[in-house]
Amino acid sequence: MDNNRRPETMERITNKALADAFIEEQIAQVRAQVGNKKVLLALSGGVDSSVVAALLIKAIGKQLVCVHVNHGLMRKNESENVVELFRNQLDANLIYVDATDRFLNLLAGVSDPESKRKIIGKEFINVFADEARKLEGVSFLAQGTIYPDILESIKQAEGKKAVKSHHNVGGLPEDLQFELVEPLKLLFKDEVRVVGEALGLPHEMVYRQPFPGPGLGVRCLGAITRDRLHALREADAILREEFANNGLAGKVWQYFVVVPDVKSVGVKDESRYEGWPAIIRAVNTTDAMSATIEEIPYALLHKITNRITTEVEGINRVLYDLTPKPVGTIEWE
Ligand code: XMP
Fold it and tell me: What is the pTM of this model?
């Protein structure tokens, strides 16, 4: 049997009882697979890697070594939250790597979106590989692969072209060949979330919006600079806070800020004030292949505009992107 194909008889995991049964089954399988060896996991803090981490902590405790690479393109407080939850609350064996300078130095002056993605993906592997080489006795690599990833690979193997290159930790160098542990590989996203909650992960983490691997790197349009990246991170944090406080966080599939490399003239304290625009994107979709625009109450848009333009250094306008997918993709790059 092809163990990368979901059996037609496999029941959809829709409740805690089914999730608990799945967890027990996977714990037994993982223990049988890895014995007393160590397992390495790149823990981004996204839903899939977090659920894998929680599952493996339960199965093999400190035999799991999590590596969190902060590429400097995370959202505000994101890396701190990963460390707090996994190291402090779940007592995970977690290595935190602040690789901000490595990434931003490589990205300096690079404006082509696909080149940026490739640099970020490749450097991510380099940083992760550097950490892996420092460790001894690791034979396994855990990944948060889920069933849509498997289906996407099958499609690509059949010759269909990907629209954007998404990255994960596949493609490690020759000297680092591990056996894979992929406990979620037959699950759909909604099932991963049910399993995550059954494992006791916080609701906000399990239901958090998707965040691309290259992070804010594809939202700080064109060549990334530290000052514009900082402005983007602060503006995005305000948008997320306001959505959470106004009941939109659970209703809108993906919402974020984009900051292009364009300045316009504004006025502040009676003086000329040149700044970047913050572009708000808030979309709903079921599969990310097409997306509609969420209707945001005008009063809330005014409040967000006011907060961003007064609280964020360097931003002097706020725009709201009304373009559905197609014709716009969800991300700008
Ligand atoms: P687009 O922009 O193609 O995005 O409409 C569809 C979904 O994919 C996410 N996305 C990415 N995710 N690496 C990722 O892991 C990437 O390079 C990447 N580019 C886009 C995007 O956030 C949206 O959810």
Answer: 0.93
